[in-house]
């Protein structure tokens, strides 16, 4: 099995609202996969279908080679889940919750548990009601990471953590990655985190996948910004397919160019004579914004 | 208290359905009693018969309180004797919902960050609840006067209802300051309400017999308001006592509020174990942790109830000896057997109805766990839904059994007739389970309306309260599972109806579990 998660054309409706509208998601075994999308895009719904908490209305979903609904209990022995909004019982301590969840999954590594508690600086003796959001998230993360499972489903796991703990989280996930046999599905809004951790990512919007691939592949799909000072007049640049938002003043040109049009665009610049050139690759932010914002910017490819 | 007005409007908006509903329904209830009494008692003699019977029936006195006179007004007040408990329950839940529950959910942070005074939230919650109680009292007064009852007594009757709400709004205001969880605050306030009811019950039944324990009623706020005795003595000073209690409790709550941080309770949370004990390794182990407090509370309460019921059983015998006429009539309606048999039949019935609340509470914990997101954590591990729900259902089944067994055993032992009294209490269990299974069915099929299960108990309670008054057709009475429970200890034990009730509970509960297994667990 090379794919830990294989979702195709997934459809989920809540009454008249279609939450997932033909979503595709493929996560290869052993990779850290970023799962991105604006609020309400369907990330959590997808994860809940994968957990067998919800049935889907169409398409197919396979998880670790099994049916997430029918084989839920057996599959759950092989995965750990951290919800985006962690709440737990007010009268149980954090340590008790970690042990309970670990045991219900089929056991956890006590050494690793204590190590993680130390690294995340968690006081496991506090009762559930006295933990902040960040500390509740730490409890769920420690319980998940200390379990010896093949797949981690993490739904915005760092949204309540402070920057220091975020760093700890990154280190731990990178360690997991080096082990090579754990698969992680990481839904996140923090771009630096995705950039640092994920091998591949899937961006979804309105219940549909809009992009999927490695970061480099996705970057390839977006435009590079070029600023140049030219010695002579440039010809034909404006007519070139793939050149956008061209501004030309006093021998300076600024434009965005699609990856496939980069070469002809540069050629025409060189033909005009280049005094200076700045090329800015697309940032992850731009990548996201292009897909997150509605309207033509999002649908243009 | 800046901003109280705005917060009050917010509460009225949030409660725009439920608040008018209980204010109106409970307010109009006495008028319903009045008109049905007028239909039933066509002659004064019939009414007097009923009054004498009611005044002497220890089971009725346990449920409704003392009946000092025989006028129509007094009969209605007496018959509505359980309503103050219902009013207390509703008002304390309302106050906690708009104070501690909001605070626990973090909604208060949002509100307190705006231009709102420290006391504004508490004040707004109390104002809404107390205004509701006041309107309810006014409806009682107006409808009773409209029904041709004396004005003075009608005003006193309205005061009785209003004060019942005010007193327990005050109790809830204090409870909301003590714990950091709404659940804990509710538990404390309900405990106070339960204690008030049991004290009133013990004192009143004792007052019927030798009167040695009558002072118990004076420890109970419910005892105070009932001792206003509208249409009879029209005593004002128990009302003053209730008013003083309300004012004092509001003062205490306001003071306690200044002594704590937002979100915190006065009873501080202590540190607990860093590792889970060996028991906490299965859905059942978790359910035990979540249910043990509830089980202990209910069992303790029912132990007290058993001691009171058993202790005053002797008074019932005295009444029977002192007036043979009463005993005759009583034996006629109370089923076969002696007067004490009839008494224990009715106390067992009351206990069954009350413990059904526990069964439903325990079942609804499944829904609570789902809504709070706890279920998601558990169901994300290798735990079957049926095992997760089963842990809670175990306590819904056996918890009431334990509480009823303790109640029956203590009542029987105290009275000196162990087996039969215990049997009468245990005989209620199949009916209790049927009501619990309704909750399971709702959780499985219509989870959003799972709270309607409380309505099932309310229907049974109404059938008990209105039943023989309105003379419903038998099929209506048959709706309540308690109608089918054998009238122990007087009557013979019949296995068939009990078996049928158990089968119904199993079928309905099983259907609910199957539906729960197949539906989505929403976020």
From TrEMBL, chain A:
SUPFAM superfamilies xref list: P-loop containing nucleoside triphosphate hydrolases
One GO molecular-function entry: ATP binding
Gene Ontology CC annotations of this record: plasma membrane
Intracellular or extracellular location(s): Cell membrane
Listed SMART domains: AAA (SM00382)
Domain ABC transporter: 5-231
Short name of any one Pfam family annotated for the protein: ABC_tran
Gene3D superfamilies (alphabetical): P-loop containing nucleotide triphosphate hydrolases
Claim: Hydrolase is one of the keywords in the record: no
Membrane topology: Peripheral membrane protein
Keywords linked to the UniProt accession: Antibiotic resistance, ATP-binding, Nucleotide-binding, Transport
InterPro entries, sorted: AAA+_ATPase (IPR003593), ABC_transporter-like_ATP-bd (IPR003439), ABC_transporter-like_CS (IPR017871), ABC_transporter_ATP-binding (IPR050763), DrrA1/2-like_C (IPR025302), P-loop_NTPase (IPR027417)
GO biological process: response to antibiotic
PROSITE patterns named among the record's database cross-references: ABC_TRANSPORTER_1, ABC_TRANSPORTER_2
Stated family: Belongs to the ABC transporter superfamily.
Protein name: ABC-2 type transport system ATP-binding protein
Automatic annotation (TrEMBL), chain B:
Keyword Transmembrane helix: yes
Taxonomic superkingdom: Bacteria
TM stretches of this protein: 17-36, 79-98, 119-145, 151-176, 188-207, 236-257, 295-320, 340-360, 393-415, 427-446, 453-475, 495-516
Keywords carried by this UniProt record: Membrane, Transmembrane, Transmembrane helix
Identification of the protein by name: ABC-2 type transport system permease protein
Lineage: Bacteria, Bacillati, Actinomycetota, Actinomycetes, Micromonosporales
